[in-house]
Amino acid sequence: MTNKELILKFYDEVFNSWDLSHLDDYMLDSYKQHNPDVPDGKDGFRIFAEKFLAMKPHMNIVKIVCEDDIVVVFFQCTLANGMQNKVFDMYRIENGKLAEHWDCVQHDIGAIQSLNGNGLF
Predict the structure, then answer these.
(1) What digits encode the pLDDT tens for the residues 59-105?
(2) Residue 91 burial (10 A CB sphere; 0-12, 13-18, 19+)
(3) How many CA atoms, within 13 angstroms, populate the side-chain half-sphere of residue 102?
């Protein structure tokens, strides 16, 4: 499986299916997190994800770019309450598993009015 395929499968099975049961297939125990609100490690991700997945997110991937061991995903995240977020996630892959993560999130984009008329996606 390519790094791009790994990330697409991870988003489909974990985030869009709200299922952490196969997390061992995707993530190293030593997963390093650069989001200051999420603890390091697979267990730290699990703690975050259990709360996040309770909001029933759906990730609509707009673009995914892969170069060597880095995969960047740009997507719209819609929560069950209708809130929409614009997100960039970047992962480093090691031995076929997620090893490191960075992100940038623009929250609650539904009310944003564009000054330039360009869409957010």
Answers:
(1) 999 999 999 999 999 999 999 999 999 999 999 999 999 999 999 99
(2) buried
(3) 5
